[in-house]
Amino acid sequence: MSYEPPTSPADLPTDIIDTLDDYSPELLRHVATYANELTEYREREARLAEREENEKVEERPENLPDDVPSKATITVKEINDNRYYYWQWRDREKIKSKYMGPVDSGNSSSFR
After folding, report:
1. pTM tops 0.85, yes or no
2. What is the pLDDT of residues 81-95, one digit of tens each?
């Protein structure tokens, strides 16, 4: 521990330095505790906001029915030599599907 007063950070405003210089050691400890807690809170909020921004769900396609989640994808199933489009998504441990329509040259672009 030094017997000299600490050097203040260059980017700390002068009015804050002057205010802190007048505080007792006990009050400075309270300020330090508060500053640390406030720092952790703001860093956590920034991380949550960044995560939320990264996890934003794409806009719902116009042709997506109300009972189909936005995470659903389009799948082609072949039944009795005929091909059909289905919405497909995972719901917990199960894969769920909802019929869209037959696969033909006229419909394929409207479902994609």
Report:
1. no
2. 899 999 999 988 899
